Amino acid sequence: MKCATRLKPCFNLIDLTPLVDVIFLMLIFFLITSDTLPLKSLMIQNPQVTSTEEAKLSQLVVIVDKDQVIYVGSKKEIVDLMSLKEVLQGHINAWKEAHHNVTPTVMLSIDRRVDYEMFLRLFSEVVKTAPRIRLAYRTEEIKIQPDIEAL
């Protein structure tokens, strides 16, 4: 049984399926190769301390955000508290191999909204692994009052 149609075949349409496939492949490639959590995206609120000396740079960073997620190293590798010691030891050993057996300083940057128990558990794990530790904090700006008599 044949049906008569009034539609004419149109060969002027462009098939967009290959274009969509290429765009999805490029999207997946860029998602995989990009850094997923740049350091500026972590909103860590460090406590303030009145101090006049500048904070010293450290070599290995351990960050804990307000949700108690632990990030280790410059690539911000997410670890749990139980495996922190092994991961941190691996980073320290890699640092020693790359820098002529120099032991790195571990800087702990912990959000001030993290509860004290979590801080102590994390601190005890880091102390077992790293001999040198620094805590990150913000310094308050000391406002110097001008001497009115000198003016």
Strand tally is 7
Helix content: 25-40%
Q: Please mark out the parts with pLDDT under 50 across 5 or more consecutive residues, or reply none.
A: none
Percentage of residues in DSSP E strands: 15-25%
For this structure, the CATH topology of the domain at 40-139 is: Nucleotidyltransferase, domain 5
**What gross morphology would you assign?**
elongated
Q: State the order of secondary-structure elements, H for helix, E for strand.
A: HEEEEHEHEE
Distance between the termini: 107 Å
CATH architecture of the domain at 40-139: 2-Layer Sandwich
Number of DSSP helices? 3
The major sheet is characterized as: 5 strands, mixed
Classified by CATH, the class of the domain at 40-139 is Alpha Beta
Structural write-up:
The protein is α/β, with parallel strands linked by helices and 151 residues long. It has a domain at 40-139: Nucleotidyltransferase, domain 5, CATH 3.30.420.270. It has helices spanning 17-33, 84-98, 116-129; strands at residues 48-49, 60-64, 70-72, 77-79, 106-110, 133-135, 138-139. Strands 4-3-2-5-6 form a 5-stranded mixed sheet, covered by helices on one side. The protein has a two-stranded parallel sheet with strand order 1-7. Helix 2 crosses helix 3 (116-129). The chain is elongated. The termini are far apart.
